[in-house]
């Protein structure tokens, strides 16, 4: 068995996996896509919204903003824990766009992956004020918790050798997605073996 990184950058990682049964490599691919917990906005309280976009539209856009997650958050975090984000646009006499960078977090390590994601455009005298809860979750619950945009597995010309490619949403470093995915797969296999042994 061997695992070799053949390409890596901030957005994507490609690994050559040799000598691992297809069912395990495909299970790893699926876990890298939606089984590694990351942060995402769950609940949004609209305190004030005089924009043209309905409250539901604002909440939907906020839920799709990737939130930074680190490997230690995954190891130590409780999926029931909540982190508060707030936004208060104030009132201006100019047309302006409210961006993800306008969100203020109570945890400096849990913020939008980019400050330039548009939320809504406000006309003069319009305003937006919200409170939002962020928590760890998995993509199996909702796509906003997917740690990867894509996770593909392709065959090579060599026997029993495959290429796993994982592209991050930006919430988590792609290498950390794979590492957390391997650990998650190992834990699931151990749990499954325990269940089987109890049945016997």
Features:
4-stranded antiparallel beta sheet, 200 residues, RNA Polymerase Alpha Subunit, Chain A, domain 2, 2 domains, alpha+beta, Gyrase A, domain 2
Helix share bin: 25-40%
Low-confidence segments: none
CATH-defined topology of the largest domain: RNA Polymerase Alpha Subunit, Chain A, domain 2
The tally of structural domains comes to 2
Gyration radius over CA: 20 Å
User: How many β-strand stretches?
Assistant: 10
Q: What is the C-level CATH assignment of the largest domain?
A: Mainly Beta
Count of alpha/pi helices? 4
- Fourth CATH level, the homologous superfamily of the largest domain: DNA-directed RNA polymerase, insert domain
Describe this structure in words.
The chain is built from four helices and ten strands; from the N terminus they run ββαβααβββββββα. The chain has 200 residues and is α+β, with helices and mostly antiparallel strands. The longest helix is centred in the last third of the chain and has 26 residues. The strands form three sheets. The chain has a four-stranded antiparallel sheet with strand order 1-2-10-9. Strands 3-8-4-6 form a four-stranded antiparallel sheet, with helices on one face. Strands 5-7 form a two-stranded antiparallel ribbon. The chain starts with a strand and ends with a helix. It has two domains: 88 residues, 2-Layer Sandwich (Gyrase A, domain 2); 101 residues, DNA-directed RNA polymerase, insert domain (RNA Polymerase Alpha Subunit, Chain A, domain 2), CATH 2.170.120.12.
């Amino acid at each position: 068995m061997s695992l070799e990184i053949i390409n890596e950058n901030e957005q994507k990682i490609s690994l050559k996996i040799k000598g691992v049964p297809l069912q395990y490599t495909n299970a790893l691919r699926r876990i890298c896509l939606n089984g590694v917990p990351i942060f995402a906005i769950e609940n949004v309280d609209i305190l004030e919204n005089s924009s043209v976009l309905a409250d539901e539209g604002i909440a939907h856009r906020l839920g799709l903003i990737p939130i930074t997650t680190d490997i230690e958050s995954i190891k130590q975090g409780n999926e029931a824990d909540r982190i508060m984000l707030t936004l208060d646009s104030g009132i201006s006499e100019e047309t302006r766009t409210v961006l993800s960078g306008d969100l203020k977090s109570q945890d400096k390590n849990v913020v939008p992956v980019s400050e330039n994601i548009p939320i809504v455009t406000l006309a003069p005298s319009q305003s937006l004020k919200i409170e939002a809860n962020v928590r760890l979750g998995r993509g199996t619950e909702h796509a906003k918790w997917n740690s990867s945009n894509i996770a593909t597995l392709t065959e090579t010309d060599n026997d029993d050798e495959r290429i796993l490619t994982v592209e991050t949403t930006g919430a988590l470093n792609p290498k950390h997605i794979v590492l957390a995915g391997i650990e998650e797969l190992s834990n699931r296999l151990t749990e499954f073996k325990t269940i089987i042994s109890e049945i016997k």
